UniProtKB/TrEMBL annotation:
Recorded coiled-coil stretches: none
PANTHER family on file: UPF0045 PROTEIN ECM15
Family the UniProt entry places it in: Belongs to the UPF0045 family.
A Gene Ontology term for the protein's cellular component: cytosol
Domain Thiamine-binding protein: 7-94
InterPro entries with a match to the protein in the record: MTH1187/YkoF-like (IPR029756), Thiamine_BP (IPR002767), UPF0045_domain (IPR051614)
Pfam families from the UniProt entry: Thiamine_BP
Name assigned to this protein: Thiamine-binding protein
Length: 101
């Protein structure tokens, strides 16, 4: 299958005004973590690395989980890199910046 990188910023609408959206985001990250794919949490988005189909499935699970938590709507901003080889790699794309600075 094709290797991919998928970055997502998930923005669920809280069930009640004033609800803490961190509970929703924490659940989304739990889904990513339990999937076993490589991932990196950033301040504005989380990036996953893995099989293209698997990453799309994780994205779907994340969105469905927001509804299960009571969110009436979800906006997911997604960046996707798909490569038929193995060029879609966080390590390869960041090798010039090993310390993140």
């Amino acid at each position: 299958m094709a290797q991919a990188l998928l970055s997502v910023q998930i923005l669920p609408k809280p069930a009640q005004p004033g609800d803490d959206t961190h509970l929703y985001v924490d659940r989304a990250i739990e889904i990513i973590k339990s999937s076993g794919v490589s991932y990196r949490v950033g301040p504005l988005e989380t990036t996953m690395e893995g099989d293209f189909d698997q990453l799309l499935d994780i994205l779907k699970q994340m969105n469905l989980a927001m509804f299960e938590l009571g969110s009436p709507s979800v906006l997911s901003q997604v960046k996707l890199l798909v490569d038929g080889g193995d060029n879609a790699s966080m390590a390869r794309l960041l090798q010039k910046y090993p310390d993140g600075k």
